[in-house]
Every structure is written in C-alpha cells, then in structure tokens.
Amino acid sequence: MTERVNSHPHLFLSEHIEQINKALHGICNWHSQETVTPSIENTLQKLVLLHDVGKGTTAFQDYIKNPAEYRGATNEKSHTTLSLIFTLAKAIDENWDELETFILAAAARGHHGRLPTIPESKFDGVSCPEWDIDNFAGGEKARLIKKQLNMVNYSGLTKETGLDLKTVSQLIANDNFSRLLTKLKKFLTNNINLKLLSLSEREAVNFRLKAQLIYSVFLEADKAFLAVSEPAHYLKREARHWQVRWIDQYIGSPPDTKTNRLRLKVRGDVLKVVEQNKTDRVYSLTAPTGSGKTLLAATWAFRLREIIASLPAAPPKIIIVLPFLSIIDQTIKEYKKLLQTGGYEADGAWLLTSHSLSDRNYAEWLEKEDEPFFVDTWRSELVITTYDQFLMNLMDPRAKYQMRFHSLCDALIVMDEVQSLPCKLWQPLESILNSLSITCNSRILLMSATLPPFVKNAIPLLPAYEKYFSQFKRYKFLFRLKDKLSIEKFKEELEKRLPIWIEGKKRVLITLNTRKCARIIRDTLVDSIMEGHNLPVYFISADVTPLDRLKTIEKIKEGKPCFVVSTQCIEAGVDIDMDLVIRDFAPLDSLVQIAGRCNRDGKKERCQVEIIDLVDEDENRYSEMIYDPVHLQVTRELIKDIMELPEENVLDLSNRYFNQLFDKKDTGRVHLKRFARWQEDLPVHELLRGKEHRQYTFLVIEEDPSLQEDMDKANSVADRWKRREAWRRLAGRIAMVSVSIYANPHFQPQQIANEHWGHWLLREGYYSSDRGLLVEGTVAIL
Q1: β-strands 607-615, 580-584: how paired?
Q2: Rounded mean pLDDT of the chain?
Q3: Is the pLDDT of residue 354 over 80?
Q4: Phi, psi at residue 460, to the nearest 5°?
Q5: CA distances from 447 to 99, 417, 550 (A)
Q6: What does each C-alpha distance from 366 to 229, 607, 723 come to in angstroms?
Q7: How far is residue 583's CA from residue 510's CA, in Å, rounded to a whole number?
Q8: Same fold for the domain at 245-467 and the one at 473-642?
Q9: Where is the HD Cas3-type domain (predicted)?
Q10: How far apart are CA 216 and CA 440, in angstroms?
Q11: CATH fold of 245-467, please?
C-alpha cells in the first residue's frame, strides 16, 4: 500500500489541493471573466498541483508529522526548489509554452518568499551568474537536489496529485541526475530566457502583470482554508452596492455661494463625461483645490460601478489611494457619512482602511481569528490606502504584498494628489497603470490640482477644466524673494504684524521647511501673544504624534481666529480654511498645495499667500535642506520676474513647471526597464520616499496609558503566529503615539527613552502636546 503524502500536519496533499480549488472559486467571484480567463484558470490548475510536490520527500514528511520534534537537516526538508525541478521537467515532457512555464516555475519556487529577479546580464546575450530561479545546477545545491530526489515518494505524489512524474523518476533510477540538470538548465537558458528577451517592453510589462495576477490569486488560495475557521464566509461574496444617489442626498442643498455653485457644476460635468465614456480605462481630473475632489472621485467610482454591475459582471472593488496619513482620516469620515446617508453602518465588508495607523478589526459578525486574513486580503467593496501600500502591492515582488495584487484587478482605482509622486516614478507608472487597465480590466482615475505630464491619453472628467481655474479667485501669491530673510528678522516681522492680525481676528497659517525652524516660530508667537491676548497657537509637525495632529486639525476646523505653525505635513488635502498663509520657499507644486488652504471656501475677499526665503544664522536656505535642487531651480526660474500671481493664473505656471521637470529630471526610464525585465531594483519605499537617513522612533506612552500593558500581553502569547497577530493589532495604536527623529551620530536613544519589547518608550518630560518633542540640545533634528 502506497504511503500517503502530507502537505500539513493535519492535511494530506490531495486535501490541501481540494481546499485551494474551493478557495479559487471564492476569489474568482470577485473577478470578471475578462481578467481570470480560461487560460489563466488552466495555468492556476497546473500550479495548484505542482507547487507542493517538493513535499514528497521522506525528510519533509518526517518534519511535517511533528515539526517541533524534527531533528533532521533543515535544508533537506525544504521543498520549493524541488517543486521547481518537477515543474520544469513536466514542461519539457509535455511541451508547455515557455512563458507559461516561467510563471509556473517562478510561482512554485517563490510561493513562500517572492518572485524571482533576473540579473541584467541575462538580457545582454552573455554568460552570467545563475539567477535565483536556476541556482540549483551546481555545487552543494545540486548535491542537495540529488539527495532529495532520491527521497521522493513518487507513487504517493502521483496518487495525491494525479501527476505523471515518471520522467524524473526514471532519470533518477537510471542515475542520470546530471543529464536532468543539464536538460533543465538548457531549457531555462535557450527557451525561457530567449522568449522573455523577445518581448517588447510593452509586452513585457503586460506579461509581468499577468504573472503577478496568477501568483497573487494562488497565494491567497493557498492560505485561505488554513487561515479562516469559517470557509463559508470566505467563499461567499455578498456584494455591497455603493450608490451615487447617496452623494446627492449627502450634499443636500448647500449654502448658495459661488464656490458651492462651482462645485455642483463640476460634479454635473463629471457625471456627463462618465455617461459618455463608460468603456474608457484611464481618466484624469484636474480641478482647483477646494472643488470637492473627494466627492467627485466618489461620484466617478459609484456611477461607473453601477454601470458595470448592471452588466453580467461582478461589481468592481473601489480603491482610494492617498499620499499622506494626514488626509486619510478625513477621507474615511466622508465615506462613512455616505454610508450612513444610505442607511448602513460601516464594517470591513463595506469599507476597509489599510495603512500603518489603521486597526485590524473587520466586522462583529466575523470570528476574531478570521479577521486578520480578511483584512490582509482587502476583502472589502471599498479600500482606502496609502501610496506606499498601493505601490508595494503593484510592484514589490515579495509574496506578502503580491497576495493583494489581484485586488488591483477588476478595480476602480482613484489616485489622489498624483503631483506628490516623485519624478522617477513617472515613466514606470505610466506604463504599468496603462497595462493594469488593459491586462487586468481596471479603471483608473488620476487626480490633482496640478497634473504631472506623465498622465497621457487619459479621458479628462473636466475637459474644459481651465475655465474652472479661471473662476476661482480666492487668493494671490505675493513672492517676497528679492532678498533672503533671516530667522531673526522674520521673528521681528511677526511680532510687529501680530497686533494687526489679532485685532482683525485673523486665521494665519505659517508653514516652514524644518521642524527646528517651525518650533522657533511657534515659540515666538506664543511668547508674543501671551502678553495680554488669548488666541491659540497650534503646532503641526512630525515632532507631534499623529494622535495630537488629528486633534489639532479638528480644533483648527472650528473656524475661530488662531495661528497655525506647521511643517509641510499640512499642505496637501488637509481641509482647513485660513485668511493668510506665509510659506517658506519650496517647489511650485508645494506652494500651490499650501495655497489651497487659503480662503478655501471663497467666502472672503481675495487673500494673500506670501512666499519668503528663510535662511539660518549661517545664511543657509532652509528650502535647500529639504527639497530637490532641480525642483527649486525650476521654480525660481519660473517666478523670478513675478511679484504677484492671482489664483486664476496658477494653472499655466504649474503646467510649465511640470513640463520643465519632465525635460530636466530622471523620470524613471531605468526603473521601468527593471520592472519589465524582472531585474532587481530599489525598494518601492525608497523609490517613493527616497533613501531614509538613520532615525529613531519613540512612543509617547502617556497618550495611551494601557498600551504598555497590552504590549506585554501581546508578547506573552505562546504561539508565534498568534503573537505576531497580537502585535499587528497594536500597530495602529503604536503608530498613533509615535514620533520619529533624525539624530546626530553620537545620540543614544536611552538618553531619553526606555526600551520595551523592541520599542523606545519616551520618558516623561520629553514631550508636550503643544510643542511636540522636547529634546533641544540632546539630538540634532531638522
């Protein structure tokens, strides 16, 4: 009697295969037949059978029956490379398509880690080192493979999978191992690599996304029944229908102001374009700051979703992508209000947030142990996330991100504030997003008040958007850049102007480029105002915890006279309305963003946005400590002869700014090539945020008094997977009370904090909700 093959301690391999196939059915309910085609389904079926055949060794079987007691060699129980060997052997034996074989080989080899990368020399037509999908052909690795192949229970694997493995077994039986490896290596080099090389760049990007789709769907299916206790909840999708009429009901009859009339007109134009262009894939929305882009995006997504759902297709998932955590909170509130307008309470099935501050709760009706998997796989009708998460799911080869890639397929994706994307992502994103819209049947909306030029061939939701910009006359720029302004002179100026602002009950925003500079100006205002006046001074910077920043923004939104001192963390999307803005010099897109906080609702006469050129005591510009020199140079050249600029003329200047950046900056050609050709590249986070300097993160534990005790409880959980999930559930709370600093090389965090389970708990006296971190003289920060 043939001995059975286990895939897990409690499962035979055939049972695991059966569970994966059931999970695939549940996943496909979220997708259209245009995306998960019969060809893709066929490839998935092969992968289901092949991915774990490497578990058929006696070493792995000894391990899996009692993992805690296994005493054999760790490398002998490994299985992914062996699964790769069987996959290639089957492909040669049955004459499979080379590109399909590459997908199968990559997924089988990388389903516990990541997709492979190919050294650049593979595409240079020269001999090169082995890459991480064919590093089995020599030395110790080859000897290990030979040993494992001699341990395989071939008849047991055939019984569990139905696969005919006689080619491999006969070669091993005839002691032709070297012939087998040579055959597989030659197939990789002469067939698969050459086929990949023959693809055009556009074809290569399309192929990579197809591979990621298959890999992603399989990764979720492979884990599903192991991660959920109630498969019935997982398998069944009960679609929730967001309705465009909720937006009409929510808006109601707003006050009859010029700004509100323009907002209603813009929304009507957007709906008209959606009805006329139902089948288009990539849209753009260029609209003035304050025109209500959150609800305009919802209008586009909800109406398109209704149109698609009326066809024989699954309703597409909606994904809202935002650049900053500071604006996610207010966006979530807007969508929750829309749900409430429709008579529903938000749970994870309706609305899910995915970022470092989000909790990991899904729904009260779901078992607690099932929630992590539903959250991690974005099993929701509408997801609000960050650019970091979105781009890692789109481009990062690691399995933990790729498992969510298929959620970007058959989706309506709103990318807000796209001007915040660095230039080196322009070319990669133009190509990859176009491919995502075609290969994966998604529709994409790119939004900004100032749209970068990489957005080509998009259908504009406001074809005549220029006329809307010309009607907004809320502010004018006043460029005070003829002379540099020292921080001391600026302090003196503020002290002179304060009485006028106080008497006029003004709301003044001062935005500066460094934390240190912002702290100095904040303290100056507080000291001056305390002499007989009672107006609040609010401080918003990265020195302040996210919890305190959100509380402060809510206070500012009350609309009372106040002074706000901030760093650039406030400039994009934070919905506040100020009478006067003073901004230290920055790239033009940042200046335009901060101007959007000035007279936002247009209820006052035209207000001023003053741009100054601050320097420190050594005549060093603060702007040059923070921003890219090319962005600064282009901005200075554009405005060098301009003293004043009204809002209605900003659009033309912004277009010239982005066009010059496109000509002068690296727009990411090499990163597009590396993505298309499966080459190793910089981490996605580094492409998005730049290379991070050494920094330390501290928890202001008094802002969440029970957090330390809950950290102790999380760390005491015996099972390592449950312990990891317990920590993940605390991640949002930890992030909410965290502050990070860039410190000098001699700084030691224990000077101001105590270590606790790998986190630094800030000691009392080093933080104030009003001033943030109080570490002057202890560390060097910007």
Answers
A1: parallel
A2: 89
A3: yes
A4: -75, 125
A5: 36, 6, 24
A6: 10, 51, 20
A7: 6
A8: yes
A9: 6-224
A10: 12
A11: Rossmann fold (3.40.50)
6-235 domain in CATH 1.10.150? Answer: no
**Once rounded to an integer, what is the mean pLDDT over residues 645-655?**
92
Question: Token digits for 536?
Answer: 């609040």
Three-state SS at 740: strand
SS3 478: strand
Q: Which residues contact 610 (CB under 8 A, 6 or more apart)?
A: 478, 480, 580, 581, 582, 583
Instruction: Round to whole Å and give the CA distance between 278 and 268.
Output: 16
Q: Which CATH code for domain 473-642?
A: 3.40.50.300
> Per-residue pLDDT for 243 more than 90?
yes
| pLDDT on residue 470 | 85
Residue by residue, DSSP assigns 670-724 as HHHHHHHTT-----HHHHHH-PPPPEEEEE-GGGSTTHHHHHHHHHT-SSHHHHH
Burial of 719 (0-12, 13-18, 19+ CB in 10 A): exposed
Q: How confident is the model at residue 125 (pLDDT cuts 50, 70, 90)?
A: very low
DSSP 3-state of 318: strand
Q: What is the pLDDT of residue 555?
A: 93
Alpha helices by DSSP H, 530-627: 546-556, 588-595, 622-626
Each domain of the chain, given as residue ranges in start order, spans: 6-235, 245-467, 473-642, 693-773
Q: Which residue has the tokens 């959980």?
A: 717
Bridge partners (DSSP) listed for residue 471? none
Q: Could you tell me if 657 and 590 are in contact, meaning their C-beta atoms sit under 8 angstroms apart?
A: no
**What is the distance between the alpha carbons of residues 535 and 726, in angstroms, rounded to a whole number?**
43
Report the C-alpha gap between 366 and 233 in whole angstroms. Answer: 8
Instruction: Centre a 10 Å sphere on the Cβ of residue 29 and count the other Cβ atoms it contains.
Output: 12
Alpha carbon distance 315, 307 (integer Å): 9
The span from the CA of 766 to the CA of 543, in Å, is 11
d(CA 543, CA 769): 10
Q: Look at residue 585 in the predicted model and tell me its pLDDT.
A: 97
First-to-final CA distance of the chain: 72
Closest listed residue to residue 321, CA positions, set 393, 373, 244: 393
Local confidence band at 131 (pLDDT 50, 70, 90 cut-offs): very low
Phi, psi at 85, each rounded to 5°: -60, -50
Q: How far apart are CA 336 and CA 317, in angstroms?
A: 16
Closest CA to 207 of 121, 94, 98: 98
Three-class secondary structure of residue 11 per DSSP = strand
The winner for highest mean pLDDT among 209-218, 348-357, 603-612, 726-735 is 209-218
| Dist CA 509 CA 540 (whole Å) | 11
Lowest mean pLDDT among 236-240, 337-341, 774-778: 774-778
* DSSP code at position 163: -
Biggest CA-to-CA distance, the chain: 97
Contact 477, 595 (CB under 8 A): yes
Q: What are the residues facing 507 on neighbouring strands?
A: 562
Q: Which residue has the tokens 């708990």?
A: 761
- Cα–Cα dist 273/20, whole Å: 42
Tokens of 203: 């074809």
Residue type, 270: V
| Separation between Cα atoms, residue 212 and residue 209, nearest integer Å | 5
Residue with tokens 């929630």: 371
